């Protein structure tokens, strides 16, 4: 199937989007880009737009980042000097019928797309893609822990809140490194899997009795589960690492007020941008192929 007449806008993101843009060019598309780190040498055959609206102008398909949208509606773009908040006017510049492929969209973006006849394709929870980029995320989390603690992971007490695809990969890795891992999850099957992996499994209701002895707490659920009351139980040396999409697992404001060191480790897939960019492209390209098949 030819991509020759397909215009793709790659908007926001991090170094992964550089590789995604290259992959789109290799597939035969015309590519416009803005909002991610731009290499000094540029990206061959990719138009570097002056802003997001310029990138989206005339695009058939827009690619937005996989990390979630902030509460104010901004796309994940940690190196971009301005916030990129998709407006109706901005999106109206796309060709009709337009398509946006991204991790997940908020209510505001969905409202704009419905009004403009743009179809959203969300892939944040695709298990195969999560597993493909999982090793890079795990390596990124380990880097955050090592850089922000004065103890080893080995023999440390670590609590993982949530045991989805990435949480389970982290559990296996931390157990293998010799940590005392405690997994708190609602799902009974997930708790059983954590136990089988060598961790101690807890219900969320059991957290208060275990938090006082934790050195590190990792949140991986995109829902606020650790509020001030629970955070106050932690020792002052504890490190909090929130790897969840907005709003995150941890009340980071309360944690700061309690004097607890907290890192919101978003976009950990950027640890290996070429590897993860290509893995994300495998899912993105399948969706583009499906869109082009429907158009033909």
TrEMBL record:
The keyword NADP applies. One of its GO terms (molecular function) is carboxypeptidase activity. The keyword NADP applies. Transmembrane segments: none annotated. It comes from the Bacteria. InterPro entries: DpaA_N, NAD(P)-bd_dom_sf, Shikm_DH/Glu-tRNA_Rdtase. This is Serine carboxypeptidase. Residues 8-123 form the Dipicolinate synthase subunit A N-terminal domain. Residues 152-253 form the Quinate/shikimate 5-dehydrogenase/glutamyl-tRNA reductase domain. It comes from Phyllobacterium zundukense. Keywords: Carboxypeptidase, Hydrolase, NADP, Protease.
